[in-house]
Amino acid sequence: MNIKAIHHIAILTDDYEKSKSFYTDVLGFTIIAETYREERQSYKLDLAINGVYQVELFSFPDYKERASFPEAKGLRHLAFAVDDIESAVAELIEKKVDVQGIRIDELTNKKFCFFYDPNGQPLELYESE
């Protein structure tokens, strides 16, 4: 096996329009394709981050709730690299997103902070420079 990269991350939402707006208008992801599947009563939205295909946003009428805390077992969180965390946090706050305080990673000395998408999915900004 020769895994080269992560192909995509799939996120399931119970409010498609709200989540679509969050990932495109708030986070600035670009839409690659949007598909409505009548037989499943489900949307699939393919999104790109900085020109790279990475996120699939799904809606299903029969979704199941899942614990979504950074310390819950399973997928812990999804982290996005930013060059300037202070300006990124300021932008999120300006767009009315509740953001936790900026912290320092004790292993790398890099700045990071958590916030949540409209479904309670834990997201992180991580300063890469």
Q: Could you provide a short overview of the structure?
A:
The chain is of the alpha/beta class.
Helix-strand makeup class = alpha/beta
Radius of gyration: 15 Å
Give the N-to-C terminal Cα separation.
32 Å
The helix content, as a percent range, equals 10-25%
**Sequence stretches where pLDDT stays below 50 over 5 or more residues:** none
Quickly count the helices: 2
Strand order of the largest sheet: 1-4-3-2
- CATH C-level class of the largest domain: Alpha Beta
- CATH architectural category of the largest domain: Roll
Broad shape: globular
Q: How many structural domains can be distinguished in the coordinates?
A: 2
Residues in β-strands, percent: 35-45%
Q: Give the CATH topology of the largest domain.
A: 2,3-Dihydroxybiphenyl 1,2-Dioxygenase, domain 1
Mean pLDDT across all amino acids: 88
Strand and helix order: EHEEEEHEEE
Give the tally of β-strands: 8
For the sheet with most strands, the description reads: 4 strands, mixed
Describe this structure in words.
With 129 residues, the chain is α/β, with parallel strands linked by helices. The protein folds into 2 domains: 1-61, 2,3-Dihydroxybiphenyl 1,2-Dioxygenase, domain 1 (Roll); 68-129, 2,3-Dihydroxybiphenyl 1,2-Dioxygenase, domain 1 (Roll). Helix content is 16%, strand content 37%. It contains 2 helices and 8 strands, in the order E-H-E-E-E-E-H-E-E-E. The chain has helices at 16-26, 85-94, and strands spanning 9-13, 30-37, 42-49, 52-59, 78-82, 103-104, 111-116, 122-127. A 4-stranded mixed sheet has the order 1-4-3-2, covered by helices on one side. A 4-stranded mixed sheet has the order 5-8-7-6, with helices on one face. Strand 7 (111-116) and strand 8 (122-127) form a beta hairpin. The radius of gyration is 15 Å and the shape is globular.
